[in-house]
Amino acid sequence: MSGQKTIYVDGVWRDAETGGTRDILDPADAGVLATVAEGGLADTDAAIEAARRAFDKGEWPNTPVAERAALLRRVADLLQRDREDIALLESRDTGKTLEEGRVDVDDVTAAFRYFADLVVNESGGRVVDAGSADVHSVVVHEPVGVCAMITPWNYPLLQASWKIAPALAAGNTFVVKPSEVTPLSTVRLVGLLAEAGLPAGVANIVTGAGDPVGARLAEHPAVDLVSFTGGLASGVKVAQAAAPTVKKVALELGGKNPNVVFADACATEEGFDTAVDQALNAAFIHSGQVCSAGSRLIVEESVRDRFVAELARRAARIRLGRGTEKGVECGPLVSQQQLDKTERYVASALAEGASLRCGGERPEPDETRPTGGYFYCPTVLDNCHRGMRVVREETFGPILTVETFRTEEEAVELANDTEYGLAGAVFSSDTARARRVAGRLRHGTVWINDYHPYLPQAEWGGFGRSGVGRELGRAGLEEYRETKHVYENLRPAPVRWFAG
């Protein structure tokens, strides 16, 4: 993608009004991967105006549900047609492995098909019993209007789809601003929407920085809803900017997610191997750059020494390299900024008394790890406690901290001792205990004897500072709808409330 026409407004690809551009860097070698348009206020306002016209005067909001669903299914088919190309694009842009990119494309495909099925199978509204045969009362759902979508750099295609698919299914129009670090797959997705036949103005994209593009989307009075996925500090700014116009706000702001391992989960060799393997999966997929990453291992004291020793041994053997290379298990961090941040977190943890069990450094360059790439070794930090920054804050890097517990009550207390509440896991061979603990965890998703799978038909979101609202599932569709009550008097007559 070498051209600069990555802004799409009212059905036309265009350059930025200012002519500005931005180089997109390959995280594996810091070379220029692509050049995109650097949008600004004028581009953002034009995109919002196009979405507003398309909603107020266009055909999409009133398009029959079956036709909207059919378009979503066409997009799903196009995603599968271009699966390899899009997966490669996502791998090179974000640094993740090619296989992870393929999984992302499949998950995006599933999201479009799920929301197509959900809306087409709905009834025409919910009839409400008004207690009178002379009244017909029904609750219906209508699209919110113009939706602003601000997406993160770690899963750009996936997170865009979680917003775009339900928004279109509900009949909305939108403007999406992908992360300025990884915008390429979202640009490609918008192109597929156009190819599938989406009317001009319904889908718009502005590539550019959070300030000014994201800030303008959040504050603009013609925007009816803003959906943001990203960091806590930026999410707070989005909510503050949206408040004066009282627009709907949905925020997914990350997490600091506990992975609780009871000794009974390790009572057999198979159980021990599974729990260790899942702890690695929880912490180091996509170099830990996952909002639901199990970055806090909370393990029962009686098995802690053996568990951590094996965990560190396996973590040290994770094969780092360019995500497109065969045999690579983990790619680089997304940027120099993220690499520097990871190093600062490890340094602060060691200064606060943590024990380094593996990692804690950049690997030596080789044929799969070019010089200049943003690589960092998977890192296990033992003897951690809640007072450490690395335990409290979302690191978004390949860092796993280890805490221990002796009792079930202590395990629950530790797992809930966070201002976030996005996800968590419990590993135990005692089904009653696992379900009991899962029921007490204050997190939006809790896995039992597993980590990371999600379903498009199940809601995703968090408690506390992990955000407000939900994506996916029925609630994910409702985020993009307004609820209206229509009350019809079948036998109108004077009320005679006033004597006249």
UniProtKB/TrEMBL annotation:
Note the superkingdom of the native organism: Bacteria
Would you tell me the protein name for this molecule?
Aldehyde dehydrogenase family protein
Checking InterPro entries in the record gives: Ald_DH/histidinol_DH (IPR016161), Ald_DH_C (IPR016163), Ald_DH_CS_CYS (IPR016160), Ald_DH_CS_GLU (IPR029510), Ald_DH_N (IPR016162), Aldehyde_DH_dom (IPR015590)
Keywords in alphabetical order, please: NAD, Oxidoreductase
Q: Which Pfam families match?
A: Aldedh
Active-site annotation:
E252
Q: In which pathway does it act?
A: Amine and polyamine biosynthesis; betaine biosynthesis via choline pathway; betaine from betaine aldehyde: step 1/1
Q: Which family does the record assign?
A: Belongs to the aldehyde dehydrogenase family.
Q: Where is the Aldehyde dehydrogenase domain?
A: 13-486
